[in-house]
Design goal:
The protein has 2 domains: 134 residues, Glycerate kinase, domain 1 (Rossmann fold, 3-Layer(aba) Sandwich), CATH 3.40.50; 218 residues, Glycerate kinase, domain 2, CATH 3.90.1510. It is built from 16 helices and 13 strands. The two termini are 18 Å apart. With 376 residues, it is α/β, with parallel strands linked by helices.
Length: 376
């Protein structure tokens, strides 16, 4: 029988562009076993609300439910949400429907990309019986304030002539009135949790358009138009109070749409996902937690998965180390967030292209080092 002292929990996020969170765990476990064959390596892939959130929930035992919805520019895409076996909680990842990766040929559409498909995913989760919906946001192609999502759920946004406004944030420049009376009535009886790793407001210099618009193809003039359109949208909804709320600017303002239209409560994405995955139960009795993501840098300190994992593991007195492709944080910064040491693949392979191409084998070699340093 394997002793509890050799139980290791692998709770890493994806290495974007190289490996999924599930693959990261598989390679780390393989490396550990080469040095400590009797190790009990437990895989619990994590995410912070963005890309990979549904996959993490499925790996933890949720059912993967596929549905055809509208992509960010209206073309149909095959998306999925995760449903708890008891049918009461669903994890909806907006990037599944409205993410940058869903843009045909990767062509950005900063003014017209819509979250309509995200609303269709929410409706599908309601149809499946969910009464708690975790809405993970991140990696979006959109800056429409969640208007598309609300439209798919029955809201109407009209211009001065009573006609529906166009899709995307650009369409909101013409919005004159909003009618939420047609929203799916099940929403009123559903707990919606907005899970995000950013706390930006809807508008202004830290808002959705200014900070994230350029990533979605918005030039300076587009950013100005989108910011003004989002401000107009908030006024029409008479919820300018929520425009400044933490998370309102998440994922092109879909956070605002969830707060104002769905009555959502904002929580840091990694906290929510760790609860969904049962991380606190999994970490008990472990000797070590191995977390990580593609790049451990200054952004990691602001709500990213490794820091959330280390915080909870530390509360249970369990040591945490991290694996990553690239490391720019000093040991003192890591220590402040509960990570005792970080192992970067770049230390084994300095060439970035080769490092990404061979991330799996490099992770296994890195895990061997961890096993010798910590478990040996």
């Amino acid at each position: 029988m394997v002793a509890e002292a050799t139980r290791v929990l692998i709770a890493a996020d994806k290495f974007k562009g190289s490996l999924t969170a599930v693959e990261v765990a598989e390679h780390v476990a393989a490396g550990l076993r080469r040095v400590v064959p009797e190790v009990e390596a437990v895989s619990l892939p994590v995410a912070d609300g963005g890309d990979g959130t549904v996959d993490a929930a499925v790996a933890a035992g949720y059912e993967r439910c596929e549905v055809r919805v509208a992509g960010p520019v209206g073309e149909p895409v095959a998306a999925a949400f995760a449903l708890e076996r008891g049918k009461r909680t669903a994890v909806v990842e907006m990037a599944e429907a409205s993410g940058l990766r869903r843009l045909p040929q990767g062509v950005r559409a900063p003014l017209t990309a819509t979250t309509y498909g995200t609303g269709e995913l929410v409706r599908a989760a309601l149809d499946a019986g969910a009464r708690t919906i975790v809405l993970g946001v991140g990696g979006s192609a959109t800056t429409d304030g969640g208007a598309g999502m609300l439209g798919a759920l029955g809201a109407r946004f009209l211009d001065g002539r009573g006609r529906p406004v166009g899709p995307g944030g650009g369409g909101l420049a013409e919005v004159d009135s909003a009618d939420l009376s047609g929203l799916d009535p099940r929403i009123a009886a559903t707990r919606v949790v907005l899970a995000s790793d950013v706390d930006n407001p809807l508008t202004g210099p830290r808002g959705a358009a200014a900070v994230y618009g350029p990533q979605k193809g918005a030039g300076a003039a587009d950013v100005a138009l989108l910011d003004a359109a989002l401000a107009r949208y908030a006024r029409v909804l008479d919820r300018t109070d929520l425009a400044a709320a933490p998370g309102a600017g998440a994922a092109g303002g879909v956070g605002f749409g969830a707060l104002a239209g769905l009555g959502a409560a904002f929580r840091p994405g990694i906290e929510v996902i760790l609860d969904v995955l049962g991380f606190a139960e999994a970490v008990r009795g472990c000797r070590l937690v191995i977390t990580g993501e593609g790049s451990l840098d200054a952004q990691s300190l602001h709500g990213k998965a490794p820091v959330g994992v280390a915080r909870v593991a530390g509360a249970y007195g369990v040591l945490t180390v991290a694996v990553c492709g690239r490391l720019t944080l000093a040991p003192s910064a890591l220590a402040r967030v509960g990570i005792s040491r970080a192992y970067a693949l770049a230390e084994l392979e300095p060439d970035p292209e080769r490092c990404m191409a061979h991330a799996g084998p490099l992770l296994e070699r890195t895990a061997e080092l961890i096993a010798r340093d910590v478990l040996g």
